[in-house]
Write a structure and sequence with these properties.
- This is (2Fe-2S)-binding protein.
- InterPro entries: 2Fe-2S-bd (IPR002888), 2Fe-2S-bd_dom_sf (IPR036884), 2Fe-2S_ferredoxin-like_sf (IPR036010), 2Fe-2S_ferredoxin-type (IPR001041), Beta-grasp_dom_sf (IPR012675), Diverse_Oxidoreductases (IPR051452).
- Keywords: 2Fe-2S, Iron, Iron-sulfur, Metal-binding, Oxidoreductase.
- GO terms for molecular function: 2 iron, 2 sulfur cluster binding; metal ion binding; oxidoreductase activity.
- It is a single chain.
- This protein is of the alpha+beta class.
- The chain contains 5 helices and 5 strands; from the N terminus they run E-E-H-E-E-E-H-H-H-H.
- It has 2 domains: about 80 residues, Beta-grasp domain (Ubiquitin-like (UB roll)), CATH 3.10.20.30; about 80 residues, Orthogonal Bundle (DNA polymerase, domain 1), CATH 1.10.150.
- A 5-stranded mixed beta sheet has the order 2-1-5-3-4, with helices on both faces.
- A hairpin with a 2-residue loop joins strand 1 and strand 2.
- Helix 2 packs across helix 5.
- The longest helix is centred in the C-terminal third of the chain and has 21 residues.
- The mean pLDDT is about 95.
């Protein structure tokens, strides 16, 4: 089967790779590019463990063909921060115990990142609704919601201090 040449920006770096026409973005990210943050969960778009930010939208990479990402700008959890300099969402998930096993966490953080870009001052109801497409089997969601609200408050405080 002929492979398609793909060029995209992933976590701020331009990358090129080959993919089969029916290959899913999650497999290209994990297997061809070595990006392990997005996880393969249900492979039916129900759980959200594979969530990435693509061209300004949260997408479940298990239901996106890699060819659809041609020219796209993609951010995974690795693109938000690193172990020595965590993104505020990563820090708040840690501080507020918004994770347990960690399997859903990368997708949760990426979805929360997009949610806060779209709504920088969400209510608890906004967060619960905005995160409804990402499932967690461990936490009961309360600490995830607290972490996202705390991150929003931190980000808003930083924005005000910069003005």
């Amino acid at each position: 089967m002929a492979k398609t040449h793909l060029k995209m920006t992933v976590n701020g770096q331009e990358v090129e790779t080959l993919a089969e026409p029916r290959e899913l973005l999650i497999h290209v990210l994990r297997e061809r590019l070595g990006i392990k943050g997005p996880h393969i969960g249900c492979e039916t778009s129900h759980c959200g463990a594979c969530t990435v930010d693509m061209d300004g939208k949260s997408v479940k990479s298990c239901t996106v063909f890699a060819a659809q990402a041609e020219g796209a700008d993609i951010t995974t959890v690795e693109g938000l921060g690193d172990p020595d300099n965590l993104h505020v969402l990563q820090e708040m998930f840690r501080e507020h115990h918004g994770l347990q096993c960690g399997f859903c966490t990368p997708g949760m953080i990426i979805r929360a990142h997009r949610l806060l870009l779209e709504n920088p001052n969400p209510s608890e109801e906004d967060v619960r609704f905005g995160m409804a497409g990402n499932l967690c089997r461990c936490t009961g969601y309360q600490n995830i919601v607290k972490a996202i609200l705390a991150a929003a408050a931190e980000m808003n405080a930083a924005k005000e201090a910069a003005q």
